[in-house]
Every structure is written in C-alpha cells, then in structure tokens.
DNA sequence: GTCTATAAGCTGATAGAC
DNA sequence: GTCTATCAGCTTATAGAC
C-alpha cells in the first residue's frame, strides 16, 4: 500500500506533511512554501503533484471521508437500532483513532470544509447523518445537543496531542465506552473489527 | 458598557467583526482587508486602532479568557467538591453561551492560541486547570478522556451555528445538564447567576 | 479618526531548463 | 520529477495628507 514508485512515495509524504502542518497551523495558515520546506523540495515540485492548494486539501481529507461514508452505509444496513448505533459509533471512533488529527480538523478548521464542498457534495450533512444513526430521526433538543457534544468531543479530544501517546486500541476502547455511556447504552467492549477497513491498521 | 466615544464604538465594532470573520474563515484565513471591508473602512483605519493583527486577535480573545480565569478562581474557592464542580462547569457553560463562537474558536483554530500565548502565559494549562476542577487532581485515563471529550464537545457544539437560534437560557440549561450527566452527577438546574459577570447578558 | 499612497514581502501559480 | 525564474495579486504595515 506504500512505496510503490518514488512519485507515489513523494505524493504520500506530501500529504502526510500537509496534514501535519494543517493540524498545527490550520489550512489557511499553511502555505505551499511551508509544505515544500518541510518536505525538502521546492514549491514547484509540490505543484507537479497537485495543481492547486485545494487539490491538496481534498486529497488529505478524501480517504477518511469516504471511509466514513462506507461506515455509515454499513451501519444503516443493520437491522436492529442497537446494532446501528454500535456500528455508527464504532466506525466513527475507528476513524478518529486511525486518522487522529484529521478528524479533529474537520470539526474545527473552516478551510477544509470549504475545499471539500467543491468536490464532494453534501459534506455538511455528514454530521446530520451520523447523528440520525445515533439518536434516530426525530430527537428532542436535549438528545440532539447530547449527540452533538459527543460527536464534536470525541473528534476533538481523540485528535488532541494530549492523547497522542495512547495506542490505538486503548484510545478506541475508551472513546467507544464514553460514547455508549453518553447515549445511555450499557457498557460493552467494541469489536475491534466492526467490519470494513481494518486492513490499513 | 458600549458607545462611550465614537472611537470606542468603532473599536468594539471592529472586534465584533473580527470575531465573526475569524469564526467563518479561521484566524489565518482572515485578512485585515476583509475586516476593513466588512466594517466599511480602510485597512489604515484598522491600523489606527490596533498596531498588528496579533493585537486584534488578542483583544478578541482576552475578555472571555480573563473571565474564564475569574470563574475558575471562584470555583477553587468553593469548599465542597460538588460546589467546585458546579461552579467550574456552570462558569464554563456560561462563557460558551455568552461568547458562543469565540470559545469554539479556542478549541479549533491554532492561530488564536499562538497569538494569545505571547501576551498571556500558560494558556495551554487552561484546559488542564478546568479539568482538575471537574475531575480532581489525579484522574484515571477513562476519567481524563471523559472530561476532555466533555470540555471540547461543550465548547464546539455550543458554538455551532446549528444552535445559534437557541436562546441563552435554553442552551445554558441543556449544556449544564449534559455536563453533569457526563461527570456522573445527578441532574439539577443551574443557578442562572453562578456568581460573577451576569451584567453583560 | 479616517483617508490615500506606498513599501516590502509572501502568496498561489506557470513556463521552461535539466 | 525536481529545479530556477518569474508572474500578478494580496498581505501586513507605515507615512503623511485631511
């Protein structure tokens, strides 16, 4: 999956560098010059791989976003409400843990959403769709707020540098338990492989 | 409190405009030109009120930050743990509600923290101090994570445009209850005036 | 207080050599 | 694939007129 050709390696290193700098300075606060310097190449070399800055932003965000869609699709196919909730929550927590800073970036930086809205439509409905999976189609205000606090909190706290030292399994388990507790569900272990996309770990 | 002189009015309108644009585009994504245009003045006029962009960023953030410190001081003076928690949580929720988008900005935009660190030291310990008030000095990992998810979630969800239509009292009550529930405390009404700084409402 | 004018520098982006 | 060189445009910031 990594290191096929030199170009692909540079491309993936470029995306990793961009993500790191986006997390530290925000999308707007990160220039192509900064990315190029950190990579040890020139701006023009960066432009060989991506035509525009927006293209970089999209490429940084796309994999996690598509995986999130896949996880929500999967959750919607579950027959019981309980299983739907566990799949949606488990999938979300999985993504937070595996992409860490990226997911936090979604909740925070306005720049990344703007860049993605142009390529993927309906991005702002992501949170709405996830919330619907967690608390049903017609939640009251208290339930809606609880779900929003939970989703934003999981993403931001999970991506925080304060917990960067925690291994994936530990972080995943704890975040999942917090989610279940906030949603009023009994404590339980998450199955590590909720389904799709475990191969990347 | 507002509209003493023309200059002070312009100054406060400038800060309100800056906050609005910071929320929409991030600190790095907002230029002085944008602020000036939105205000209907020139860039040079903006520079009359503030020497640098960082100074604007600091001035936008300072009032909420100093109030947060005051609230935490007050909470620490409480004698019982329960009262400490209620004061800290209530004070935090009060600030979220009253400043809305600003507090969300702290949790997200890296630019605002960088600007403030230069003037106010120990900004990164704010979250740590608040967490200590909420869950004590030596929490286990699960408790630490719960507090971090709660603090980040309250701030981000409370500042979300999705809840902009909610009146202060409604939002405050619900966020406070969510906080108490996550901290494992029985449900209760927050006293609207937990102490200081109710006059601004 | 707000303006015009301007400086110096960084931005995203392109063209063409190697 | 990466480089140097260059572009127009925007950035923060200053000087001085009104």
From TrEMBL, chains A, B:
Domain HTH tetR-type: 8-68
One of the record's GO molecular function terms: DNA-binding transcription factor activity
Keywords: DNA-binding
PROSITE patterns: HTH_TETR_1, HTH_TETR_2
DNA-binding region: 31-50
Cross-referenced InterPro entries: DNA-bd_HTH_TetR-type_CS, Homeodomain-like_sf, HTH-type_TetR-like_transc_reg, HTH_TetR
Pfam families, A to Z: TetR_N
Cited PANTHER family: HTH-TYPE TRANSCRIPTIONAL REGULATOR PKSA (PTHR30055:SF226), HTH-TYPE TRANSCRIPTIONAL REGULATOR RUTR (PTHR30055)
Protein name per its UniProtKB record: TetR family transcriptional regulator
Species of the source: Saccharomonospora viridis
């Amino acid at each position: 999956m990594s290191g096929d050709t030199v170009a692909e390696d540079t491309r993936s290193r470029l995306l990793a560098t961009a993500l790191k700098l986006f997390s530290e300075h925000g999308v707007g606060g990160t220039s192509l010059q900064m990315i190029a310097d950190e990579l040890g190449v020139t701006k023009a070399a960066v432009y060989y791989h991506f035509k525009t800055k927006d293209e970089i932003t999209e490429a940084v965000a796309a994999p996690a976003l598509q995986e999130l869609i896949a996880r929500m699709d999967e959750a919607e196919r579950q027959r019981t409400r309980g299983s739907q909730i566990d799949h949606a929550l488990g999938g979300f927590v999985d993504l937070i843990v595996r992409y860490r800073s990226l997911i936090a970036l979604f909740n925070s930086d306005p720049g990344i959403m703007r860049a993605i809205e142009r390529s993927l439509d309906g991005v702002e409905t992501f949170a709405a769709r996830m919330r619907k999976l967690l608390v049903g189609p017609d939640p009251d205000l208290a339930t809606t707020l609880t779900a929003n606090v939970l989703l934003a909190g999981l993403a931001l706290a999970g991506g925080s540098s304060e917990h960067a030292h925690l291994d994936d399994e530990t972080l995943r388990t704890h975040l999942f338990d917090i989610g279940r507790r906030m949603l009023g569900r009994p404590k339980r272990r998450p199955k590590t492989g909720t389904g799709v996309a475990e191969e990347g770990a």
